[in-house]
């Protein structure tokens, strides 16, 4: 055990060995069934028949590196860009969200010729060295010094953040002014902004939904300073928010670069960067060819194509909205009964339940959240917690999670909180 202590083991005191999964359920080696409330990788459901068939059929015919042309590459790019604003027209296929965000930084710097990056408090954008530097979620914990070219803006958390209250355009403007001030401070030191990067709905930061107008105002400040705007959709894309394909659309903005991954292949390692023709041209002009051995290989593209097919065919975006609305309503009904529920927030199947010791002080109930996660597991429900204080229960299940599953989860949560209070 001591040889790999730096690798995280979930449910460390009583780990689970999962041997198969289907839909929103996972099964251990004893055949015990668990409701999966945390796996946003299996986007359209574990082992979805359409995805499995598409991947296995393609694997039986051809899988190779990207030295050769293949229809799947073009078909996948066309289908992906069809869900996006017209200006986002050029795709780069890679293998993971981390690779996608690393490439996004390279694209931004090639285009702007500027090094500096603005990110948000508690952000996480991937495990590569370039991304740890812009992931306060990681470098704050590890006590790594912040680089001079990194500028960290307050996370727009209207419940616990610097500016609090009901989500409103006024709060959106207050938080966006923090980014404006960061830009001015950087410029006063002779620095220039290359990019602003943010998850369109921060997940590791605690399942945060931006106040109205936040990104629109931030994008304006960044572009006026000569930077570009990157929307990290790795955790929240492909319809999870329930009203749009992409969470950035909730803010009525068009990014210069978006990154997608994680759920894109339903568990198969495939991701992408999508950007404008102008930014892609500037990347080409620096003279360094881009090649990715496995990014966009025939099987990866088959997986991604089938995921997008299932999302559309089965109406999973509308399903996420209906199920999410139902779940949030049930959770809000628990709030008057359980004083440890400080906040319920989210949209679609992206939901956070913040647990507190006291609603007035908002002291985070970290130990309680950990206990709830353990008790949920004992009740055959898999969930995790996040946020800077690890006190936010986060619900990011496969998109086939339904109202009956929500009823089960909320009823068990009610029982757990009741037994704690008694």
TrEMBL record:
The keyword Transit peptide does not apply. Keywords: Pyridoxal phosphate. One of its GO terms (molecular function) is transaminase activity. It comes from the Eukaryota. Gene3D superfamilies: Aspartate Aminotransferase, domain 1, Type I PLP-dependent aspartate aminotransferase-like (Major domain). GO terms for cellular component: mitochondrion. InterPro entries: Aminotrans_3, Aminotrans_3_PPA_site, PyrdxlP-dep_Trfase, PyrdxlP-dep_Trfase_major, PyrdxlP-dep_Trfase_small. It holds the Pfam family Aminotran_3. Signal peptide: none annotated. Belongs to the class-III pyridoxal-phosphate-dependent aminotransferase family. This is Alanine--glyoxylate aminotransferase 2-like. The lineage of its organism: Eukaryota, Metazoa, Ecdysozoa, Arthropoda, Hexapoda.
């Amino acid at each position: 055990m001591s040889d790999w202590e730096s690798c995280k083991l979930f449910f460390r005191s009583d780990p689970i060995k999962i041997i198969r999964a289907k839909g929103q359920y996972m099964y251990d080696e004893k055949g015990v069934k668990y409701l999966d409330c945390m796996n946003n990788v299996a986007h359209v459901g574990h082992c979805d028949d359409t995805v499995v068939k598409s991947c296995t059929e393609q694997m039986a015919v051809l899988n190779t590196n990207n030295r050769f042309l293949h229809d799947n590459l073009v078909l996948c790019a066309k289908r992906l860009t069809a869900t996006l604003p017209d200006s986002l027209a050029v795709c780069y296929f890679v293998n993971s969200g981390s690779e996608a965000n690393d490439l996004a930084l390279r694209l931004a710097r090639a285009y702007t010729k500027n090094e500096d990056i603005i990110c948000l408090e508690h952000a996480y954008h991937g495990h590569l060295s370039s991304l740890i530097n812009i992931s306060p979620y990681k470098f704050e914990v590890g006590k790594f010094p912040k680089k001079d070219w990194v500028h960290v803006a307050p996370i727009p958390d209207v419940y616990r953040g610097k500016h609090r209250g009901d989500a409103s355009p006024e709060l959106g403007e207050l938080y966006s002014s923090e980014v404006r001030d960061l830009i001015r401070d950087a410029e006063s030191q002779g620095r220039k902004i290359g990019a602003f990067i943010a998850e369109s709905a921060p997940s590791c930061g605690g399942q945060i939904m931006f106040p109205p107008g936040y990104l629109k105002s931030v994008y304006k400040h960044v572009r006026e300073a000569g930077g570009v705007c990157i929307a990290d959709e790795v955790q929240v894309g492909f319809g999870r928010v329930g009203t749009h394909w992409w969470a950035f659309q909730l803010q009525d903005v068009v990014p210069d670069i978006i990154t997608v991954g994680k759920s894109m292949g339903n568990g198969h390692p495939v991701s992408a960067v999508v950007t404008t023709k102008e930014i892609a041209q500037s990347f080409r002009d620096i003279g360094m060819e881009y090649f990715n051995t496995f990014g966009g290989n025939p099987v990866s593209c088959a997986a991604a194509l089938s995921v997008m097919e299932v999302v559309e065919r089965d109406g999973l975006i509308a399903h996420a909205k209906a199920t999410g609305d139902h779940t949030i309503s049930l959770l809000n009904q628990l709030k008057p009964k359980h004083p440890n529920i400080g906040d319920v927030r989210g949209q679609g199947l992206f939901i956070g339940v913040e647990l507190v010791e006291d609603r007035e002080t908002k002291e985070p109930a970290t130990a309680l959240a950990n206990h709830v996660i353990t008790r949920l597991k004992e009740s055959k429900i898999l969930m995790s917690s996040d946020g800077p204080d690890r006190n936010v229960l986060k619900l990011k299940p496969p998109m086939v999670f339904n109202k009956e599953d929500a009823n089960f989860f909320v009823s068990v949560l009610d029982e757990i909180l009741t037994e704690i209070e008694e």
